[in-house]
Automatic annotation (TrEMBL):
<dbReference type="InterPro" id="IPR023845">
    <property type="entry name" value="DUF3817_TM"/>
</dbReference>
<feature type="transmembrane region" description="Helical">
    <location>
        <begin position="39"/>
        <end position="57"/>
    </location>
</feature>
<keyword id="KW-0472">Membrane</keyword>
<keyword id="KW-0812">Transmembrane</keyword>
<feature type="transmembrane region" description="Helical">
    <location>
        <begin position="69"/>
        <end position="88"/>
    </location>
</feature>
<feature type="transmembrane region" description="Helical">
    <location>
        <begin position="12"/>
        <end position="33"/>
    </location>
</feature>
<protein>
    <submittedName>
        <fullName>DUF3817 domain-containing protein</fullName>
    </submittedName>
</protein>
<keyword id="KW-1133">Transmembrane helix</keyword>
<feature type="domain" description="DUF3817">
    <location>
        <begin position="6"/>
        <end position="93"/>
    </location>
</feature>
<keyword id="KW-1003">Cell membrane</keyword>
<dbReference type="Pfam" id="PF12823">
    <property type="entry name" value="DUF3817"/>
</dbReference>
């Protein structure tokens, strides 16, 4: 497995988790204080697109790491729980880093 598979998953995990926290904050302001309805709409749309990209990258990572279905589903669902993606990303990184193939050294020129 290439390192880029893990890197793009990690980037999307952080982006999705941060946007989910921003969306939760916007929802508090929208429903708690009756302010920011337009901003909440924009943030929800951005989060939705980022989450779809996150799902694609999480699926790609899970298929290349040959995870069972339950683990793949847990990683995908963690993007919907505020703060969970930060903890799951750390665990995924620790589990996947040993699977990353190191580049082969160039053959010696004689």
């Amino acid at each position: 497995m290439k390192k880029s598979v893990l890197t793009r998953y990690r980037v999307m995990a952080f982006a999705t988790a941060i946007m989910l926290l921003v969306l939760c904050t916007c929802m508090v302001f929208k429903y708690g204080f009756d302010k920011g309805a337009d901003l909440t709409f924009v943030v929800s749309q951005v989060h939705g697109v980022l989450f779809m990209v996150y799902l694609v990258f999480a699926f790609d990572l899970s298929s290349k790491a040959k995870w069972p279905f339950g683990r793949m589903l847990w990683v995908m669902v963690s993007g919907t729980i505020p703060l969970a993606a930060f903890f799951v990303e750390r665990k995924v990184r620790a589990d996947v880093e040993p699977l990353i193939t190191s580049p082969r050294p160039a053959p010696a020129q004689a």
